[in-house]
């Protein structure tokens, strides 16, 4: 049987209760990303790095400066562990598993319910590369290459279509229009920075919106 591949999702963490065990080098990056995603983050660690400390001082996360204790996963919706002691990962994972809370650990892939891809962003566009745990270094290399392919025009196009999606009723006419904008002339013009001409195409498309359904 072949090795299963990891299944990618994009989580919406705004207002969700998330626990991060550890506050060292690896945890700092995780903490920053979780706060940026709007999670209600609690960090538990006896030794705390500068950026977690800064976020705590700014009131953007709750910091408990102590070792992890049984019961800490209670009430949490997602758990991340990044400590320098794999016994901590094992203990937290056992508790999380027993209570059905999903867990990621930086040091024991076998205990992960989900893994983290290498991520890069341009505006609303997210490039994420996973190697299903085979080669994090390769995930990072490929992510950088793929992100270079995302141009300012793509970001403009994503914002424009997002704006239209919020205003037009869902259905086949909207699908057709958005696909046409992205793949057709308007998209091409936006890519080349010719926004006024692109908007003229969008207006023309909107005038006939829904006529052929
Ligand atoms: C992508 C990225 C996302 C992130 O962490 O945000 C990520 N690792 C990154 C970098 C990186 N990690 C490591 C190196 C050294 C070179 C190498 O080993 O390749 C480098 C490269 C570097 O640092 O440049 C070492 C390492 N990583 C894991 C272990 C434990 C083990 O395998 O036993 C060890 C050994 C530790 C040791 O030996 O002590 C485990 C995991 N690392 C994962 C993700 C998950 C699988 C991702 C996938 O499927 O591809 C998984 C399974 C669990 C998880 O963490 O979710 C991030 C890139 C960030 C960026 O883009 O900049
Ligand atoms: N997944 C990845 O991408 C990746 C990459 C490199 C290394 N790693 C692994 O990640 C782990 C963490 O590395 P690091 O550089 O962040 O370590 P670090 O030494 O910088 O930080 C360790 C943190 O764990 C905390 N800690 C220790 N015992 C604890 C306990 N009982 N309860 C709560 N917190 C506790 C410490 O207080 C500290 O904040 C290592 O095992 C390393 O092998 C993972």
UniProtKB/TrEMBL annotation:
Substrates-to-products reaction catalysed: precorrin-2 + NAD(+) = sirohydrochlorin + NADH + 2 H(+)
A Pfam family reported for this protein in Swiss-Prot or TrEMBL: NAD_binding_7
EC number(s) given by UniProt: 1.3.1.76
GO molecular function, one term: ferrochelatase activity
Sorted UniProt keywords: NAD, Oxidoreductase, Porphyrin biosynthesis
SUPFAM superfamilies: NAD(P)-binding Rossmann-fold domains, Siroheme synthase middle domains-like
InterPro entries: Met8-like, NAD(P)-bd_dom_sf, Sirohaem_synthase_central, Sirohaem_synthase_N
The Siroheme synthase central domain, residue ranges: 122-146
Enzyme kind, highest EC tier: oxidoreductase
One of the GO BP terms on file: siroheme biosynthetic process
Pathway membership, UniProt: Porphyrin-containing compound metabolism; siroheme biosynthesis; sirohydrochlorin from precorrin-2: step 1/1
NCBIfam families hit by this protein: cysG_Nterm
Protein name as catalogued: precorrin-2 dehydrogenase
The species this protein was found in: Cystobacter fuscus (strain ATCC 25194 / DSM 2262 / NBRC 100088 / M29)
